[in-house]
Structures are given as structure tokens and as C-alpha cells.
Write a structure and sequence with these properties.
Nucleotidyltransferase, domain 5, five-stranded mixed β-sheet, 4 helices, globular
Length: 160
């Protein structure tokens, strides 16, 4: 099985999951057999700045992706993935390695019929403020991912 994660970084399993599948800077594609990782590939999202509806799901199909895991995805994109036979998992956050483990342990699952509203940012004259907030958002997601990873390690150590 091939699982694609949206990513803010090109750090493989150590990457922080990106909130939006279409505009993320990178994808981390993980090949899994059973619960064992067989391969990891980080690729840039050539369509991050713009794409036509359905292009990314079509591309993921050509890459052999079976599941895409992301923070958020609009209902139309989810439908395109469904049309290609690719399952979607939304609402995920943290480092790719931790989210992968959660998925493999069925702590996060594909929820059939779950549709989120796609968030569109309106452009205004305060684009520098928007850019600053976007950078701050990425930094906060990185901090949350690090904390989540530390909690998981402590839970394993304590046996929770």
C-alpha cells in the first residue's frame, strides 16, 4: 500500500504534516507492507501555487497512491480522490511518522462520507500580514508535532 502525506517540509518521516493537500509544498509517499515501512519518498508539489480541479488526484493515481492523509481537504477534492479509488483521511496533524503509526494502528481512519469545507483565503491589501501569519502557523504546527511526538514517546515509556 502507498500512503501519501501532505507536508510542510522535505524531511521524510520527520516532516510536519501540512494542513491542506493542494497547496502543501511537499508530499511524503510511504510504501507499506503490513505494518512495515518499505520505502519513503519526499517530492515537491509542483502544483502548490495553482492547479485545475482533479489534477492532483489524477497525479496521485499515477504514483500508485492508495490513501492520502492530510489536515484538510475540500469536498470536491475528496470526490475526485474517491472517483480514482484513493481513500482520504482528513483532520490529521503532527509528524508524518507519528500520523503513519496512528493510521497503521487504526487510531485515525478513513471516514466514508466525511466532507470538510475547503478554506479559501481572501486576498486583501494586507498580504504581508497574511504571509507572516502563514509562517507563524507553520511554526506552530511544527511545535505541536514535536510535542505530540514527545507525548507518544512518554506514553510508550510509561506503558499507556
Amino acid at each position: 500500500m502507498k500512503i501519501c502525506f501532505t507536508s510542510d517540509e522535505q524531511n521524510g518521516l520527520e516532516s510536519v504534516l501540512s494542513y491542506h493537500f493542494g497547496h502543501c509544498p511537499y508530499y511524503v509517499i510511504v510504501s507499506v507492507e503490513g505494518n512495515k515501512v518499505k520505502g519513503v519518498e519526499s517530492i515537491p508539489n509542483a502544483m502548490a501555487e495553482g492547479h485545475n480541479p482533479g489534477e492532483l488526484p489524477s497525479y496521485m493515481k499515477t504514483q500508485g497512491v492508495d490513501v492520502i492523509i492530510t489536515g484538510g481537504m475540500g469536498p470536491r477534492a475528496q470526490q475526485y480522490f474517491e472517483d480514482y479509488g484513493i481513500k482520504t483521511v482528513t483532520g490529521a496533524y503532527g509528524k508524518v511518522k507519528d500520523v503513519l503509526e496512528e493510521f497503521l494502528q487504526s487510531k485515525i481512519t478513513v471516514e466514508e462520507g466525511k466532507k470538510e469545507s475547503e478554506e479559501h483565503e481572501e486576498k486583501s491589501g494586507e498580504e504581508s500580514e497574511i504571509d507572516r501569519l502563514k509562517k507563524e502557523n507553520v511554526d506552530l504546527r511544527r511545535q505541536i508535532a514535536d510535542l505530540k511526538s514527545r507525548v507518544a514517546k512518554l506514553e510508550k515509556k510509561v506503558g499507556i
